[in-house]
Design brief:
It is built from 16 helices and 10 strands. With 329 residues, it is an alpha/beta fold. The strands form 2 sheets. The chain has a 5-stranded mixed β-sheet. A 5-stranded mixed β-sheet has the order 7-6-8-5-9. It starts with a helix and ends with a helix.
């Protein structure tokens, strides 16, 4: 039995005892950000399970995803960074996290131009430099956290708001001294410079990097079965990828959908971790850890002047009901 048929069988189980939902939805995602869900996306698993058409729209940043959900153009965002989610929620947008999409400390970072020869032992020399940062994103949070760690005054930097692809090009052209981003853009940045801290070093000082699947709270409340079915298909694809025997079949499909070659896809996805449903529902993640982490992110953004105020609590910004249903709980 092929992986596709296995997923088809799993998806069909969701519809047993239900009327077909037959709802067309639009889902946001990123190119050059390869994940197992893209196998299910490319092979029609979501359409089959939901009984309708899923339209997938690629975005340049998590802040753009928030705007699209606010306008009603997008119902679900896959792999939205926690910082852009926090920015939107702190500003009053009624969004909810519905699962943990991916953890990737090694795949989101800032790169210093190689000509400057600045590393973690000389980070203070960044003062007065020009930095390309996608504001309100995970990369922005990581940048602020690293500058705080190294004691670099944010006010001394010339910060330019750029999405990662443009930031990578600017670094290559010498137009900026440091650029921050993720995925394929980060790999291109690394061709022209070095990171100050590795992923492991960032984790040691409390800089976590993970993305979530998010959706407008009103949509989740009105369509719990749709959300649960979507998350179940995602979990099945993650489980398939976790079995190395399936990866030869899945990799080329994921690579094509991500707009990458297979070598780059393998290099990127090998730095990712895809928590299981049980892991996501644990205390370390959606059982409390993520909520506490969001509060920390918001407080850092307030201190940096990036947002006006943080919420007292981010507990209401997490809804585990659909994920529990997806896991049969």
């Amino acid at each position: 039995m092929t992986i596709k048929n296995k997923l088809l069988g799993a998806a069909a189980m969701v519809l047993v005892g239900q009327a077909a939902m037959a709802e067309d939805i639009t889902v946001a995602y990123f190119l050059e950000w390869p994940m197992p869900f893209q196998y299910a996306k490319a092979t029609g698993m979501y359409d089959e399970a939901l009984g309708g058409t899923v339209t997938w729209r690629a975005f340049g940043s998590g802040t753009e995803m928030s705007a699209a959900m606010a306008s009603g153009d997008v119902q679900i965002a896959v792999s939205q960074g926690v910082p852009p989610f926090v920015v939107a929620a702190s500003g009053g947008q009624d969004l909810q996290i519905i699962d943990v999409a991916v953890s990737y400390s090694e795949n989101d970072n800032c790169v210093v131009a190689e000509a400057l020869e600045i590393d973690k032992d000389s980070a203070g020399e960044l003062a007065g430099r020009k930095v390309a940062v996608p504001l309100g994103t995970a990369a922005h949070y990581g940048f602020l956290s690293q500058m705080n760690h190294f004691g670099v005054d944010i006010g001394s930097l010339d910060i330019v708001n750029m999405n990662p692809p443009e930031a990578a090009a600017a670094l290559a052209q010498g137009a900026v001294d440091m650029a921050c981003g993720w995925g394929g853009s980060l790999r291109r940045m690394m061709e022209h410079g070095n990171v100050l801290l590795t992923g492991a070093e960032k984790e040691e000082i409390g800089i976590l990097v993970f993305d979530v699947t998010s959706a407008p709270a009103g949509y989740v409340a009105e369509n719990p079965e749709t959300i649960a079915t979507f998350l179940e298909v995602t979990a099945k694809a993650n489980a398939m990828w976790a079995d190395a025997a399936n990866q030869a079949e899945m990799l080329p499909v994921i690579a094509k959908d991500a707009g990458m070659d297979e070598d780059a896809t393998r290099a990127t996805i090998d730095t990712f971790k895809f928590p299981t449903v049980d892991e996501q529902l644990s205390e370390g993640w959606l059982g409390g850890g993520a909520q506490a982490f969001m509060k920390g992110v918001a407080d850092i953004f307030v201190d940096a002047g990036s947002i006006d105020a943080a919420l007292d609590s981010y507990d209401a910004a997490v809804n585990t009901g659909p994920l529990k249903a997806a896991g049969g709980m």
